[in-house]
Specification:
Keywords: DNA-binding, Transcription, Transcription regulation
Order of helices and strands: HHHEEHHHHEEEEEHEHEEHEH
Distance between the termini: 70 Å
Number of helices: 11
Number of strands: 11
Pfam families: HTH_11, WCX, WYL
Strand content: 25-35%
GO molecular function, one term: DNA-binding transcription factor activity
Shape: elongated
Helix content: 25-40%
Domain HTH deoR-type: 2-57
C-alpha cells in the first residue's frame, strides 16, 4: 500500500463532492479492489469516508469533516504557498510535499490564477550562490536525526580556528542571517550550543538514540546588546563599494564628499569581525576617526603587507 497514493486520494476526496471507485482506479492505474482497501485504511486513520452505492454513487468525505475552503483568503493561501515552497526548496521531504498538496487542494478553480500570481510576487530562495556545498545534505541528515532522536557526531571549527570533535543531541535547525545553525545539546560542553553548519565536517548520524530532554531555545535577538556595544566611526569610501556598505548602515548615514566619495557614519564594534569588514573594502575605504581605530587599521594593513613582502 503506497502512502503517497493514500494522501493523493484524501486530497481528491477533500476537493471533490463524490467520486467512484472505478474513476479512482483508472486515475492511479490500480484495481477497484485496491481502491476499496485504500478507503478502508483511510477510514481506520480516522477520516470518515462515506460510500454511496448505485448509479451516481461513489466515495465522499462526510461534509461535517471537510474544511470550508472559504476559510482561507487569497492572501492566506498565497502566503502559505510562498512559505512552503521556499522551505521545500532547501529542506526536502515528503511531509513538505504533502503539505503543499494539501494547501493547493484548498484553492478554488476560479481563484487559482490570482492566488498563484500573488504567491509568485515574492520569491524566497534559501540556496547559496556559492560556498560550502555540504549545507544541503547536512540539513537532510540533521532533519532525519531530529525526527528519530539519534545522536550526531561531527568535526567543528570553533573560534580562532580551534578544531574539536563533537557529539550532540539535535533539537532545532535555525536559519539566521542567511546562515544555517544547529541548536543541540553538546556532550563535550554538557550544555546547549548553537553550531554553524558551514563550520561542520564529517557529519554522521549515529545508530544510538537519545531521550529528548527539556529543550532550551537559543537566544537569537541581540539588537539591544549590539546597540550597547556599537559605536559610530567615520569612514570615507569610494562610491564603488557603496552597495556593500549599505548592508551595514542606512542611506541616511552617507554624506557626499566630492563626486566619487562619501563620508559614512559606520556602526562598529572593536573586534576581529568588524575590523575584517573594514579591511574587506580594501583601498576603497579609509577610517578617519576615532584615531585609535585608524591606528589599528594601519597596523593590520602593515602586517598584511609584511606577509607579501616576505
Amino acid at each position: 500500500m503506497k502512502i503517497d497514493r493514500l494522501v493523493s486520494i484524501m486530497m481528491i476526496l477533500l476537493d471533490k463532492k463524490r467520486i467512484g471507485a472505478q474513476a479512482l482506479a483508472n486515475m492511479f492505474e490500480v484495481s477497484p479492489r485496491t481502491i476499496y482497501r485504500d478507503i478502508d485504511a483511510i477510514n481506520m486513520a480516522g477520516i470518515p469516508v462515506h460510500s454511496t452505492p448505485g448509479a451516481g454513487g461513489g466515495f465522499e468525505i462526510m461534509p461535517a469533516y471537510k474544511i470550508d475552503k472559504k476559510v482561507f483568503s487569497a492572501h492566506d493561501l498565497s502566503a502559505l504557498l510562498m512559505g512552503l515552497s521556499s522551505l521545500s526548496g532547501m529542506v526536502r521531504g515528503d511531509e513538505l510535499v504533502h503539505a503543499l498538496a494539501k494547501v493547493r487542494s484548498f484553492i478554488p478553480a476560479d481563484r487559482a490564477k490570482d492566488i498563484e500570481l500573488k504567491a509568485n510576487q515574492i520569491n524566497i530562495d534559501l540556496s547559496q550562490w556559492m560556498g560550502n556545498r555540504n549545507i544541503q545534505p547536512y540539513l537532510e541528515i540533521i532533519k532525519t536525526a531530529m525526527q528519530e532522536s539519534r545522536l550526531l557526531t561531527f568535526g567543528y571549527i570553533a573560534h580562532h580556528g580551534n578544531k574539536t570533535t563533537r557529539t550532540a543531541e539535535p533539537y532545532q535547525l535555525v536559519l539566521k542571517g542567511s546562515h544555517w545553525y544547529l541548536q543541540g545539546y553538546c556532550h563535550k560542553r554538557e550544555d546547549y550550543r548553537l553550531f554553524r553548519l558551514s563550520r561542520m565536517s564529517n557529519l554522521q548520524m549515529q545508530e544510538k538514540t537519545f531521550t529528548p530532554r527539556e529543550y532550551q531555545k537559543p537566544p537569537l535577538d541581540f539588537d539591544n546588546i549590539l546597540t550597547n556595544l556599537q559605536t559610530k566611526i567615520k569612514i570615507r569610501i569610494h562610491k564603488s563599494v557603496m552597495d556593500r556598505v549599505l548592508d551595514f548602515c542606512a542611506y541616511e548615514d552617507f554624506l557626499p564628499d566630492g563626486d566619487a566619495h562619501y563620508i559614512v557614519s559606520f556602526p562598529f564594534i572593536e573586534n576581529e569581525y568588524h575590523y575584517g569588514i573594514l579591511l574587506s573594502f580594501g583601498d576603497k575605504c579609509e577610517c578617519l576617526e576615532p584615531l585609535h581605530v585608524r591606528a589599528e587599521m594601519k597596523r593590520r594593513i602593515q602586517k598584511i603587507a609584511m606577509i607579501y613582502e616576505g
